[in-house]
Amino acid sequence: MLFFSPTTFAGQKQQVGKFDIHYMALDSTFLTPAVAKKYGITRSQYRSIVNITVLDTSQEGNPPVAVKISGVAHNLLDTQKKLKFQEIREGKSIYYIAQLSYRDNQETRFKIAIQHGTDLNTTIHFKRKFYVN
Q1: pLDDT tens digits, residue range 72-109?
Q2: In this structure, how many other beta carbons lie within 10 angstroms of the beta carbon of residue 89?
Q3: For the DUF4426 domain, which residue ranges apply (predicted)?
C-alpha cells in the first residue's frame, strides 16, 4: 500500500452527498525511500505531500472513484503555490498526490477543488502546520 488508509494517519474526512473525501498533508519523510522513488516523490524534511482519496459511499465497499482535482496552498504571507496532483492507482485504490515545499513552523492553508461527473463538484479547505524534524 502506498499511503495509509484514511483512518490510519491523522487524516480528515469531509462528506459531500454520497462521497467521502479523505485528505491529509504530511511530511514526505513518512514515506519509505522505496515508495518515494517508485512514484517520483522527493523525500525531504522541507517537503510535504498532500494525499486525497474520494470514496463512493453509495456502493458496496465504498470504492474509490477517479476525480478531476486541482488546488492551491497559501502560507501566512499569502504566497500562493499551485498544487500539481498526480493520480496513483494501486490495486483498487486511487490516490491523488501533490508535493509542496515548506519552512519550519509554517502554517499552510489548502484549497482543493474536486469534481466527479455531475455528482460531485466541491471545494474543500483545510490547514496544516509543518515542522522541520
Answers
A1: 999 888 789 999 999 999 999 999 999 998 888 788 99
A2: 11
A3: 13-132
C-alpha cell at 58: 453509495
**CA–CA distance, 59 with 19 (Å, rounded to integer):** 10
Percent of the chain at pLDDT exceeding 70? 92
| The residue type at 36 | A
- Per-residue pLDDT, 1: 46
CB 104 within 8 A of CB 133: no
The pairing of strands 47-56 and 93-101 is: antiparallel
Please name every residue paired with 88 in a beta bridge, in sequence order, or none if there are none: 95
Q: How far is CA 69 from CA 52, 65, 74, 101, in A?
A: 9, 12, 17, 19
CATH 2.60.40.3340 fits 12-130, yes or no: yes
Whether residue 98 contacts residue 85, with contact meaning beta carbons closer than 8 Å, is answered with: yes
Q: Of 51, 49, 52, give the one whose Cα is nearest residue 102.
A: 49
**Under a CB-based contact definition with an 8 Å cutoff, are residues 124 and 23 in contact?**
yes
Per residue in 47-57, pLDDT (tens digit) is 999 999 999 99
Q: pTM for the complete prediction?
A: 0.87
